[in-house]
Amino acid sequence: MDSLHTCFHLCVSNFSDKQSHNSAPPRVALAVLFLGASLFILGPCVFGQSLGTAGTIGGKVTDPSGAPVSNARVTLSNDLTMYRREAMTSNSGEFQFTNIPPNVYHFEVDAAGFQHHHQDLTVRSVVPMSLEIRLDIQAQHTDVTVLAEAPLIETTPPAHSDVDNTLFSKMPTTSVASGLSDIITLSTPAVVADSDGFFHSLGDHAQMSLSIDNEPITDQQGNLFSTQIPLNAIQSVEAVYGGTPAEYGDKTSLVVTTVTRSGLGQKPHGSFSGEYGSFGTVSQKADLGFGSSKWGQFFAVNTSRSGRFLDTPEHWPFHDVGNDENIFSRSDYQPSTKNMFHLNIMAARNWFQIPNTFPERDSGQDQKQMVRSYNLAPGWVRVFGPNSTLAVNAFSRQDFVNYYPSRNPMADQPGTLAQKRSLANLGLKADFNYAHGRRHNAKIGAQMTHTLLTERFSLGLTDPTFNPVCLDAAGNPVTDPALTDPSACAGAGYQANPNLLPGLVPYDLTRGGSLFQYHGHADIREQAFYAQDSISLGNWTLNPGLRFDRYDGLSQGTQLQPRMGASYHFAPTGSVIRVAYSHTYETPLNENLVLSSATGAGGLAANVFGAYASVPLKPGIRNMYNAGLEQALGAHLVFDGDYFWKYTRNAFDLDNLFTTAIFFPIEWDHSKMDGFSSRVSLRQYKGLSAYTTLGHTRARVFGPENGGLIFGSPVDRTVVRIDHDQALQSTTHVQYQLAKNGPWVAFTWRYDSGIVSGAVPDLASVLGLTADQQAQIEFYCGNQVATPWSPITTCNSSNWGTKLVRIPAAGTENDDTNPPRVRPRHLFNLGVGSDNLFHTDRFRWTLRLEALNITNKVAMFNFLSTCSGTHFVAPRTYRAEVGIAF
What is the 3-state secondary structure (H, E, C) of 27-55? Predict the structure, then answer.
């Protein structure tokens, strides 16, 4: 493993060192060459497992005498997620489906002269499922009435949502390079939308575990931290938001498992498309899959460029050009039914400008960032018999982030900064799976990870009013560069600034200071052991589990974590009642963790930043409770509802530095969060499918705040609603397709009632904002309206307000029960197209036309958020895509 990692690291270094922060995007040919070389060198010796989460269904179809039935059509489908696979039995009557996402499926067999066979199957393990199907002879001259089957319902305890590629491929994605985040936000009811491809899951920020083909990823995913896997490489997405299984740890508010696409056992198939849209957005997508019964290969290559790469602090974007390149490869090899091998490789790069505000544009601010991500994930599945398997996954993932200041440091306000950091995550995960009929589905496993963090950071103040040494008689900052000692203020006729941070004065460039320079490194090791089972006892299903974690990083700790879920299925009414309890160990966020843990009292010698961290960030301990109901409504609808209560000691969040894209992890003393989620899904009916999600989240945190780069006094222990809190969010998605590969139309309605915006609790706070900040929220007083260059400094009219933020009436604001909020927004998206424009057989031309935010709603994600900043929802956007598929 060490030699493999070294080889991969050398390839990465050679590829990445040639890139500069203002270079043109790397050519696709170079990336393909790198990918092909990796496959050629590494492929024969490190191929890995067929998936630690996906299942296999095989079997044999016979007639009443036991003779094999050839050319029988075998179908596996789920009409809620729109997953569908078909196969024909061989001359020996055998069939096989591989790479099946965990879910419940309708299984059907049809053969000429035989009666139709159907049954429901549940896939929740990598243990292969073997079926013996005996078809009865069809009676002569008998009219057969096919009754509509009931929609599939899950009888297991975890609350979750599922979407398949067939469904989400027609859903709108507003983020240029974070399509997976958009799909999770639009399909999962417990998720609050945030800017730049991020979201808040069940009241938490960045507390998501992502499992890609059984590779665990708990670091932040998105444009700013690490490039996501492209959507055209994904087969299915499952989001678990209640009753977390014991195999998942570190970040457990939301567990998202994805199964990638495979070429195993498939004829050559693929597609290529080009897209052009608003803001000069150009993208190309290509995928190709092929294989046989023993091997398979799948590629996905994507590039994009946009003039609105990130969500902007002004309604209309400027200084927001970015590009993204992403290459994904999946290789499968199955020499026998006993061994299955698999290898994932991904290389990606983001380069983008940091969007400016109007004052930043006028000052010439020109900050940029580049993110390079590389992933190598081999593994192996060994089948010991019909009931047991061993799945082993190794992974090596690296992220390199470079943040570049403006060429003129003084153009960066209120400070200039630069960053170069890397994150290397190496690990091994092994699971032993055992299935005993329908009674037990057990898993015992271990996971070891080793995370290497290296951080370089520099900072210099460029605004003399940010940390003034002296104040005049009126309390205004004194900008005299000669005043660097507060004891000299009185002699000059001024008063010392009582809120001065003396540790920052040596790094104030307006007072002759120099850049603050920081270089830190951390070596974080984690080990986990877990055991879980799914036990069926009649109508009851029990999910007991136990996990043990050891965390050895900047802080240390261990935790034993019991998990338990139970559900009861009322078959006559099609009802399932669920309850679950999860005790989890939440580990600190890795991005910028080293510096964030070194800035508090006693840190950096003189507490330079005025932060209040007294110790490194510690892992959090959480107790979470869930109760829910799933109900079939007739033959076509399913309702799923869940309520959660979550209590965390050492609750994690992020601290945004100035208006940059640099964030530092922090933790609150404790948090209390609760809310509900529900989803109503329509089973696909004659080409029509739809779902509606509803969610409500209360997110309450208690100080003091610990860690980060905090310029100011500590937060006290008073309860605060943070900006993860939202009263109501919902998504309605409806799509209709006329026959297979025919014309289609898709409509999505997203509603967000508005997250907390604590920066503007009253009129006085609004009057204290800059002119541009007042203009951003469209502040008015009588007939006077703020502009980016003309603030409103006094307001004596009773007719005042802001159009984009709801500020409580005078005297009614309460940080807990009545905080200020971003105003509600309704966003409507419409897409139309065809999967076979000219009705051809082998090669199909495709067309897709989209309009996002079709009412051109002016709305905000957040305003002066401590963990995100200020960002606007994208204006009306048009896209056109033409492609060819086979």
Answer: CHHHHHHHHHHHHHHHHHHHCCCCCCCCE
Cβ-contact 340, 317 below 8 angstroms: no
For residue 566, the tally of other CB atoms under 10 A from its CB is 19
Q: Within 10 A of 337 (CB to CB), how many other CB atoms are there?
A: 12
Amino acid, res. 428: L
What pLDDT does residue 602 have?
47
Q: pLDDT digit string (tens) for 401-460?
A: 999 999 999 999 999 999 999 999 999 999 999 988 778 899 999 999 999 999 999 999
pLDDT of 527 > 80? The answer is yes
Of 779, 784, 781, residue with least CA distance to 797: 781
CB 349 within 8 Å of CB 307: no
Cis status of the peptide bond prior to 317, with omega within 30 of 0: no
At position 710, the amino acid (one-letter code) is: I
Residue ranges of E strands in 493-598 = 495-496, 516-537, 540-552, 556-570, 575-586
Q: What is the pLDDT of residue 716?
A: 59
Nearest residue to 106 (alpha-carbon basis) of 135, 85, 133:
85
- How many helices (DSSP H) and strands (DSSP E) are in the chain? 8, 47
Look at phi and psi of residue 725 and say left if phi exceeds 0, alpha if psi is from -120 to 50, else beta: beta
The model's pTM? 0.89
Distance CA 886, CA 844 (A): 6
Give the Cβ contact number of residue 308 at 10 Å. Answer: 23
Residue type, 40: F
- Give yes or no for a contact between 767 and 786, defined as CB atoms under 8 angstroms apart: no
* Average pLDDT value for the chain: 88
For residue 704, whether the previous peptide bond is cis, meaning omega lies within 30 degrees of 0, is yes
Tokens of 13: 């270094």
Residue 710 pLDDT level (bands cut at 50, 70, 90): low
Measured CA to CA, the distance from residue 735 to residue 325 in angstroms comes to 30
Distance CA 30, CA 11 (A): 12
Angstrom distance (rounded) from CA 325 to CA 322: 11
DSSP state of 315: S
Q: Residue 833 and residue 853: Cα distance in Å, rounded?
A: 18
CA–CA dist 752, 730 (Å, integer): 7
Determine the angle formed by the axes of helices 28-46 and 2-16, rounding to 10 degrees. 170
CA distances from 581 to 246, 328, 422 (A): 11, 37, 36
Sequence-ordered strand ranges (E) for 794-853: 800-802, 805-806, 821-822, 825-834, 844-852
Task: Give, as one character, the DSSP assignment of residue 604.
Answer: T
Contact predicate 618/688, CB 8 Å: no
The values of phi and psi at residue 488, to 5°, are: -90, -5
125 is written with which tokens?
Answer: 């393990």
Partner residues linked to 624 by β-bridges: 582, 646
Q: How far is CA 89 from the centre of its chain?
A: 39
In tens, the pLDDT along 143-178 reads 544 445 666 788 888 888 999 998 899 998 888 888
End-to-end CA distance of the chain: 38
- Asked if 479 contacts 510 with a C-beta cutoff of 8 angstroms, the reply is yes
**DSSP letters spanning 156-215:** SS-EEEEEEHHHHTTS---SSS-HHHHHHHHH-TTEEE-STT-EEETTEES-EEEEETTE
Length of the chain counted residue by residue: 886
**Phi, psi of 804, deg, nearest 5:** -115, -5
3-state secondary structure of 563: strand
pLDDT digits (tens, 9 = 90+) for 99-108: 898 888 999 9
Residues facing residue 470 across a β-bridge: 496
How far apart are alpha carbons 773 and 94 in whole angstroms? 67
Distance of CA 578 to the CA centre of its chain: 26
What SS3 class is residue 15?
Answer: helix
Q: Is the pLDDT of residue 241 over 80?
A: yes
